[in-house]
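User: quick one - fold this with aspartic acid bound?
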Amino acid sequence: MFALIVHGGAGQWHEERLPRAIEGVERALDVGISILAHEGSAIDAVEQAVMVLEDDPAFDAGTGSYANTDGDVEMDAIIADGSTGRFGAVAAIRNLRHPISVARKVMEDTPHCLLAGEGATRYAHANGFDFISNELLIGDATHPAHDTVGAVALDARGHIAVATSTGGTRAKMPGRVGDSPIFGAGAYADAACGVSATGVGEYIMRVLLAKFVADGIARGLTPDVAAQGGIAHLANIQGSGGVITIDRDGRVGKHFNTLAMPFAYVDGRGQRNVGS
Ligand code: ASP
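Assistant: Sure. Structure tokens for the protein plus aspartic acid:
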């Protein structure tokens, strides 16, 4: 049994951009499924799925990221392996095609969990990751809102992994870091479930949204009910956003309180669903 869910961000999506975004999340889902169906690991599946979305300018992650008020793209990403309890993250990293892969390298090959700013960019450079110019990273500024990406997977060995990647919020201050690279806020994984969050980071951080949803599942809630509870909790402080989650039984949950959140998943019973 395996399961995978990906999202393309909870936000103020314009109707005409949704079909393209749904195509994008479906493509990422299929890449992840091709790994999981061949006994691949959850961590590989979420990394590869998010890489597809980082390359897709329809989303605010990697290529297509929002620039800050200086005109620079600064990206945040996190990957977490529920089977080991470890995570790696990068914050305010620049000129990187795949921030999620740098986050994985931080997790696997450094004594640290989170590298930020110039140090993170230098680390990626020293390790041969694909560099890309600021101009190529910036999404078409005439495009209306688009959003952060994330993925959660359960593999055949019962391991759960999660990945979240973002260019952050539109017109953010230079140096601003959102919830995405904060373990327990923008992502969380343990042996029982994985959660990826999206929305306005300044609110998500205050309620540790991903951990809040995981705590609900640990108390026995179904993933869907736990996801709804998380968004209600976020709404209590006037926050808006969305979450996706999978538990160790391959049950999927998702919920959002924004206009839309493109998603695609296959659950542990092989049920496939795509929507926004
Ligand atoms: N959570 C992201 C941030 O605040 C943005 C998003 O999910 O759209 O950086």
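One thing worth noting: The pocket of aspartic acid is lined by residues 9, 11, 60, 147-148, 166, 168-169, 178-180, 198-201, 204 (CB under 6 Å).
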